[in-house]
Amino acid sequence: MNKQTRRWTAALCALAFAVLAGCSGNDSITVPSDEPSDAPALPSVSTMKFQLDFFGVATPAVDAQSLATGKPSAEMLQSAAAIDRTHWINAFVRALYVQLLTYDALEEPIAAFALAIHSVPQKQDDGSFLWTYIFVDKETGVEYSIFLYGLPVGNSVEWRMEVSSNNPAQPLDHFKWFDGTSMQTEGYWQFYEPVDESNGIEVARIDWTDTRLLNVLRITINGVGHEDEGDTLEFHQTPAEGMIEHYDASADARCTILWSADGSGSITCPDYNDGAQSCWDEHQRNTACSQ
User: What are phi and psi of 49, to 5 degrees?
Assistant: First the structure.
């Protein structure tokens, strides 16, 4: 299996898990009903995962071939919706593709973290708080036990998520899925992938800023020896504009996509339109870029 095929398969599996974890009716809460008043607030999932909403602009339907290659298929570009909108369609397909590939190892812990809001923390002897909960894969019967710890330290909170699982293919015993630190509007997450039941290695780090007017995430593949080591994906969005920038360290190539609240935007990638900035207007139709 080549690198691209392997990563596309991993992305599909991750998305399937995310849907399962987010929609399962089998989530069971195993904590008391009275939440401690001094428990730290859980950071938003938006500190881990961004949404490509493009300010509500209607996005094109992406076929499997386009998503597998990261470039619009001939069929997609020949559709009625694609007439004079090739820059916008290329930008959307590429943005979605790099988001899936960057997050292919992170979907499961992020989906598990999203369920913490349904749980109630218990205060521990060391001053930390523990959220515990269980969810079950209805198709396989695999049970995942989640242990999320939050320790207030001054003006920050130190976080750690552990997971145990009876999955015969990958049994886990209090494996640390991620840790990190949050302050009021900024922080970081470090994710790990398992090498055995209890131990793991670094795979990716997310540095984030999250305020009412600004959402910034910088995802860095920092696993030593990882095939994508050094790759980064940055996301910035304000009420007026957004940006996603992907850097491929192995090719030393950078792709930047910009969009505005009025629906206009641009794409600049080395392998698209000879690397020239390519723009679309508020109706997502190709247009000349402003100088």
Answer: -135, 130
